[in-house]
Amino acid sequence: MGINLKDKGLEIPLDDWGAGTQNRTQIMMSILSASRIKQERNDENRITPIIIIEEPESFLHPSAQAEFGRVIRGLSRELRIQIIITTHSPYMLCQEKPESNILLDRKLFRGRLKDTQVVPVNEDKWMEPFGEILGLNDESVEPWREVVGAAKDNAILVEGNIDKEYLEFISSLNIKGFTIPEDVEILPYGGKDALKNSIMLRFIIDKFSRVYITYDLDAKKELSKVMTQLSLSEDTDHMAVGIDDD
User: What is the C-alpha to C-alpha distance for residues 221 and 228, in angstroms, rounded to an integer?
Assistant: First the structure.
């Protein structure tokens, strides 16, 4: 069987794509194959496949890792198939059910490896120990810490906690057309300068199914270039709020 993938209307054999695309495609085929096996038998002897994937982030940049992790989690839920992943990437972690992430650590003692241990993970700050070991404690990531550890698939990004409380208050009034859906999380990103990191912002956008970005009106000129670079449309993907003043 040969597989071709389309790119801008051109069909290209899978073997001619990069290692990251080949790897993703093979994983997707395995998941769909498992779904077919699961549906073929409906008696008590039916096989329920479990898929084990080793480091699916291989050959993928962080933004693609975040997107692919979300796709795998979505297929697992939709097809009701257990998928177990071993990973070195924080972007592959399951944000919807943090308790499903198991952190293993193997320490060195006098040059020798000791037994592997399960690291306890706090329910409220589940991402912190993963971040320490996987390298998330960087200045460029710090403003996005709460966003990276989000629990829902959709997000409204706001500049600070006051903006978050304001939107939550409006939503609590139950005015038709002004309530936040249950599958949407309001997340502060800690100031306009965080949005200027286009690489990190692209990763955040790919991490979620849908993202809407808000920022203060007086920062609109500064951020317009970044929004254009990322092909984000005003009003559809982002909007300025407030007044044009400090």
Answer: 11
**CA 136, CA 146: separation in Å to the nearest integer?**
12
Question: How far apart are alpha carbons 30 and 53 in whole angstroms?
Answer: 10
Model confidence, pTM: 0.57
Q: Which amino acid is at 90?
A: P
Residue 26 makes CB contacts below 8 A (sequence gap 6+) with: none
pLDDT digits (tens, 9 = 90+) for 136-149: 555 556 667 778 77
Cα 239 from Cα 213, distance rounded (Å) = 7
CB 185 within 8 A of CB 151: yes
Distance in angstroms (rounded) separating the CA atoms of residues 44 and 109: 50
What are the C-alpha distances in Å from 242 to residues 167, 178, 188?
13, 17, 16
DSSP 156-206: EEESSHHHHHHHHHHHHTT-TT----TTEEEEE-SSHHHHT-HHHHHHHHH
